[in-house]
C-alpha cells in the first residue's frame, strides 16, 4: 500500500467520508486532490467530523500542563504538540500516515520566506516583508515559551511544526457541547488541523467550497469537475504577497492581487500632511490592484497636489474630484514610474543572486514580474489620460 492510500485509509478510520476524490501529486504544486471520476456540481466530496480534527482541546496533557501558565498562542500550542508527539509516550494515536504525506522541512526552506537567508528576504515585496516581520514576532514569542517548557525541543523542529500549523490549519470555532460554555476565542486562535482537507490546493476561482456545521466540515463541488482534474478550494481573498509570505506560492491570475505603495507615498508627505491624514483615518495602507489605486490612495495623492481646503471637500464628499483628476494622474504617474524603475532593479538583483537558491529566485522573479505587470498597466492608464 503506497503512502497516499495508507493515509486515506487512516482518515477513513477516523470517521472521514471521501467521495470520488483522491490524493495526487501535481507537478510544481505538490500533493493535491484529483477527481477519480467526472463529478457533478453540488456533490459532497468530503465529510470530516469534528472528532477527527486536532484543536487546542486535543493537545496532549503534558504539553497543556507545561504551557498553561505561559499564555502561549493556540498556534504555538499546536506546534509544540506536533513537534513533540513522537517524543512523548502519552500519545495514543499514531499519526505516521499523516506525517508521511506532509511537506518536508527542506521544502519549506525552499518556498517559505521566513526560512530564507536575510539577503533573499530583503528582495521580498513590501507587503510580504510586513507579514514576515509579524511572523518573526509570533514565532519568537511561542518559541520562548515552548523551549523553556521543553528544553529538549530544537528550534528547527519547532519552526517546522509552526509552519505546518500555519500552512495547513482551517478557521474553526469549536461549538459548545454538553452545556459547557467556552469563551469566544481571538480570531488568531480559531484554528484546527484538518487531515485530508489540508491537501486541497488554493485557487481564487475554486471548484469546491468549504462549509462548517455544528458537527463537521464538508467540502462540496461548485461546478462540474472532469476525471483527473485537480479539485481546489479558496484559502480566502488574498493578494499574492500574502500567499507568498504565508504559504510559499503565488498564483498566475489572482483577482485579489494588489501592491502596497506606502514606500513611495509616505516619504512625500510632510508632518502636517501626515497629521491631517491621520485625523481622518487615511494615513498609510495605499494599494494598487488590478484595476486602479484604492480610494485611500486617491485621498493621499490629492493632499500632495491640491490646496488643503479643496482636499478637505473631497475627503468629506463635498466634491467628486473630477476637475482635479488630471493633477492626480500626473502625481500618480511619477509614483508609478519610480515603482516600475525599482521593480526592474529588483529583478536584476534577483537574477544576480546565487543559483544555489534557484527555487527561491524563481518565486521572487515571478512575484516581481506580476508587480511589474500591475504597475505597467496603471502607468499606461495614467499616460493615456495625461
UniProtKB/TrEMBL annotation:
GO terms for molecular function: protein-lysine N-methyltransferase activity. Pfam families: SET. Residues 19-236 form the SET domain. It comes from the Eukaryota. PROSITE patterns: SET (PS50280). One of its GO terms (biological process) is methylation. Keywords: Methyltransferase, Transferase. InterPro entries: SET_dom, SET_dom_sf, SETD3_SETD6_MTase. The keyword Ribosomal protein does not apply. The keyword Repeat does not apply. Coiled coil: none annotated. This is Ribosomal lysine N-methyltransferase set11.
